[in-house]
UniProtKB/TrEMBL annotation, chain A:
This is (2Fe-2S) ferredoxin domain-containing protein. CDD domains: TRX_Fd_family (cd02980). It comes from the Bacteria. It comes from Anaerofilum hominis. Gene3D superfamilies: Glutaredoxin.
Automatic annotation (TrEMBL), chain B:
Keywords: Iron, Iron-sulfur, Metal-binding. The keyword Iron-sulfur applies. The keyword Nucleotide-binding does not apply. GO terms for molecular function: iron-sulfur cluster binding; metal ion binding. Residues 92-121, 122-151, 168-197 form the 4Fe-4S ferredoxin-type domain. It comes from Anaerofilum hominis. This is 4Fe-4S dicluster domain-containing protein. Gene3D superfamilies: 3.30.70.20, Fe-only Hydrogenase (Larger Subunit), Chain L, domain 3. Pfam families: Fe_hyd_lg_C, Fer4, Fer4_7. CDD domains: MtMvhB_like.
Length: 81, 483
């Protein structure tokens, strides 16, 4: 599985660097670090919708520390099963 | 001419040509550029204001068009002389002016070590076949009647790369030139130019078909904070996206990557010279070849961020936009060319905005934030050393003490390199910047002013990330080192 986290200026200012850290922690906690490849992307083209990430080909917008766990469960854990 | 946009009328003239060339490039009419642009700028019936007649003015403009289209492909240097534009300034050296009163003391005659001065008819005369240009006569004359006349280009060139040929035209020795652009900025007739890649960049943008075929990223130098005084930085970012760039990224992020890596390398190797300024690196290679192995093995911030962008998007095209003419040489180096596809100066970017009729002041403000305070202050002299010191603290490197020597301008660089080559330098890291004040003094800047440094520092303080590691953390281990 490939996860891209937008690090463009707009997402950065909305907190994307925190999401990267949360993602790394969550993957480690679930022992998925080897199976999931996390990388940065400059702009996923959805600058106005909050922090944007892409899980394989699916774009998810408005990611925040509050909804991170739900998004991780829905897109990463389920997608991994 | 708007005095706020440029420092000089030479820059304005260059801009007029770049703008017209860009318009022709967009209209697919470049074949008409040589014929039409000189006439569009100097129309029939105009009066000559710069040269002897409008035909000479148009001929020079034709040469400027040539340079804007990419210049002489046979000449590997991006800094080139426009022969017919060189006004053959007098090269008289020290001369006695009308203020000489033919005094009785004759201090000038007494002090001259070569016996080059005689006083005849109550007026001092200098025999130029004997004069060695030491300047002692000028310093002792109580009337300040003796002055030095050197060509502005020769005076600007601190690496002695410019001399006069038999026709008294300026000639550049490519074996010495470091492409810093100092002569380009200083020549009062605009006879030395930095050849442009503006047409290549326009082609790159157009062939991307609105970033569908591939994405074009603009990497912007932090000195942008002291430029485009007529608009807000956020509007410049919007303008770049309006031009068709997919995204705009700070070169300062590359600076963050470099400062972490360079500080580790310094601790490991014990002595290092910086690799950020391509003119400084070129200077070492040409003048201190024995010290070439002391140059940091890191790419410049431009190269580092280009490498990172291409790691995230292998199809990406990267255009660097900054104050620097030497970057136009650097991006062609084999170790850099995989990561950077084009280079524009701020002057050229301004021309591109105007050619596309983009009024920055009417645009919404976009955001630019990829780097830390320390990455951003690379734009001014001393910034790199501050960043390396901070990188030592952040990485908890304790068994080695960094002693940076900040060299502001190529003359200070020369002095430090001379001392270092004899093991006399009180320091172990040379921060070398060829331009005075650092990148904010670059020849490709629109304006140069005393507030530029403050503007860079202020821009640095606005960065969201407060540490180098937090900013560079997103690069997922992409190494800024050369491969």
């Amino acid at each position: 599985m490939n996860i891209y986290i937008c690090v463009g200026s707009s997402c950065h200012l909305k907190g994307s660097y925190n999401i990267i850290n949360l993602m790394k922690e969550a993957l480690e906690k679930n022992s998925l670090s080897d199976k999931v490849n996390v990388s940065a992307a400059f702009c996923l083209g959805r600058c106005t919708d909050g922090v944007t990430i892409k899980v394989d080909d699916e774009i998810i917008t408005g990611v925040s520390p509050d909804n991170f766990n739900d998004i991780f469960d829905k897109y990463v854990l389920k997608g991994n099963l | 001419m708007n005095g706020r946009i440029f420092d000089t009328r030479v820059q304005w003239l260059k801009y007029k040509v770049l703008k017209e060339v860009a318009k022709h490039a967009y209209a697919d009419t470049l074949q008409d550029a040589y014929r039409e642009i000189p006439k569009a700028i100097i129309p029939d019936g105009a009066k000559a204001t710069m040269r002897c007649c409008i035909y000479k003015e148009r001929a020079v403009l034709g040469e400027r068009v040539h340079s804007a289209l990419g210049g002489d492909p046979e000449n590997p240097n991006v800094i080139q002389v426009l022969d017919i534009a060189c006004d053959e300034c007098p090269v008289s050296g020290y001369t006695v002016g009308p203020d000489c009163r033919g005094c009785i003391a004759h201090r000038c005659e007494e002090v001259c070590p070569r016996g080059a001065i005689t006083v005849e008819g109550q007026h001092a005369q200098i025999d130029h076949s004997k004069c060695v240009g030491c300047g002692k006569c000028a310093s002792v004359c109580p009337y300040n009647a003796i002055s030095k006349h050197t060509r502005p280009c020769e005076n600007a060139c601190k690496v002695n790369a410019i001399h006069m040929n038999e026709e008294k035209k300026a000639e550049i020795d490519n074996g010495k030139c470091i492409s810093c652009g100092s002569c380009v900025y200083m020549c009062p007739f605009g006879a030395i130019v930095d050849r442009s890649f503006i047409v290549d960049v326009i082609k790159l943008l157009r062939a991307s078909k609105n970033n569908r075929n591939y994405k074009v990223y603009a990497v912007v130098a932090p000195s942008v904070s002291s430029q485009f005084n007529y608009a807000k930085l956020g509007q410049v970012i919007s303008g770049l996206k309006t031009l068709g760039f997919y995204n705009v990224i700070e070169a300062a992020l590359g600076a963050d990557m470099v400062s972490l890596s360079e500080s580790r390398e310094l601790a490991e190797r014990g002595f290092l010279t910086s690799s950020c300024c391509p003119a400084f690196v070129d200077y070492i290679k040409k003048n201190f070849p024995a010290m070439t192995d002391k140059i940091s093995s890191n790419l410049s911030p431009m190269g580092a961020v280009g490498k990172f962008v291409k790691a995230t998007d292998p199809e990406a095209k990267v255009v660097f936009i900054g104050p620097c003419t030497a970057k136009k040489m650097e991006f062609q180096l084999p170790e850099v060319s995989p990561y950077v596809d084009g280079v524009l100066t701020f002057e050229e970017l301004h021309a591109l905005f105007e050619a596309c009729e983009i009024d920055l002041t009417a645009l919404e403000e976009d955001v630019l934030d990829n780097a830390s305070y320390y990455g951003r202050i690379f734009a001014r002299s001393g910034g790199l050393s501050d960043a390396v010191a901070q990188a030592f603290r952040e990485q908890d490197i304790k068994d080695f003490e960094a002693k940076p020597v900040v060299c502001n301008g190529i003359e200070e660089c020369k002095l430090a390199l001379l001392k270092a080559s004899r093991n006399l330098l009180p320091g172990n890291f040379i921060e070398g910047m060829a331009c005075i004040n650092g990148c904010i003094g670059g020849a490709g800047c629109l304006t140069h002013g005393p507030k530029d440094k403050n503007e860079v520092d202020e821009y640095g303080r606005l960065a969201l990330e407060k540490t180098i590691e937090s900013a560079a953390g997103i690069t997922f281990g992409v190494s800024p080192e050369k491969e």
